Amino acid sequence: MxxxxxxxxxxxxxxxxxxxxxxxxxxxxxxxxxxxxxxIHAGIYYSPDSLKARLCVEGRRLLYQYCAQYGVAxxxxxxxxxxxxxxxxxxxxxxxxxxxxxxxxxxWTSVKVLLQHEPLVRASHALYSxxxxxxxxxxxxxxxxxxAQSAGVQFSPNTTVTRVTPENSHFVVNSVSGSPGNLxxxxxxxxxxxxxxxxxxxxxxxxxxxxxxxxxxxxxLVRGCYFSLSGKPPFRHLIYPVPERAQKGLGVHATLDMxxxxxxxxxxxxxxxxxxxxxxxxxxHFLQAVQRYYPAVRAEQLQPAYAGIRPKLSAPDAGAEDFLxxxxxxxxxxxxxxxxxxxxxxxxxxxxxxxxxxxxxxx
Length: 363
What we know:
This protein has helices at about 1-15, 50-70, 90-100, 110-115, 135-150, 200-205, 285-290, 330, 345-360; strands at about 20, 40, 75, 80-85, 105-110, 125-130, 135, 155, 160-165, 170-180, 180-190, 195, 220-230, 240, 255, 260-265, 270, 300-310, 325, 335-340. The protein is an alpha+beta fold. Strands 13, 15, 16, 17 and 18 form a five-stranded antiparallel β-sheet that branches. The protein has a four-stranded mixed β-sheet with strand order 5-6-4-14.
């Protein structure tokens, strides 16, 4: 999010602002952004009129344009959403929601046609999304950073914000920068401060003096593990089951990387602290989930791959929550924009979110 926002503001207002992009890690995008399924979502699953729905659809179109213009590796591979017996009603609901979100490129497909394209998939009913794709997320982030720096953005890695103090029409930002054991204080002033800290957004918000703590939501850490599939790739498209109840996740689905290799995931596990460990014992859970639509898979073909962590706004026993983007209209602090709960489809929506944040600042 920070990369996309910095690049967009620099592109439209390069002569008006000095832009500083702070990153607590040595390299940008080492957390949620680099640990996803790298899917470009069509905008199917989200509640109509939600930020997720609107920004995903807008962001998807912007993202395909960006990738084509700047040579970022991507493929519009398409996706089948498959249902088993007694799940057809869920597909009808998905179609209704997609139409309400402005996604017209979602079609019913017969099982016969599905099997012509994906003969190893088992399903009773299916939908096909032609606008779903995949992207090299690392190449996308590298491109955003290069374009931002080329437009004058200063990138400061290994930098942690410790306190933000509103002062007249500015913010005084206190931070420390450098490697452990060699940290130096770094203090500066800015007219606008954008909190796009992902997993750490709530912690950063709590360091803004004078802000209303009741406006800072609780962010739940939700780990999603991935297992890779050994052997010849069995699919040419993405294969998604019917989404999980209350949209905790989209189910353990089959995705492709840019080389065509298949991986399954993510699952959903609420955790108390950041931990990217993939427990091999979860193989049984993955096997059962995948066999519902790919019965030929064997346990020994599933290998632990990696895990990502989503910053969710929804509690374990609650329904899905929307993105939360706060501006002056909610917290009454001019120049401050805060982003909370930017999980999936955050990657797809990144360029649209950047435009939205810019508009909230009146740029």
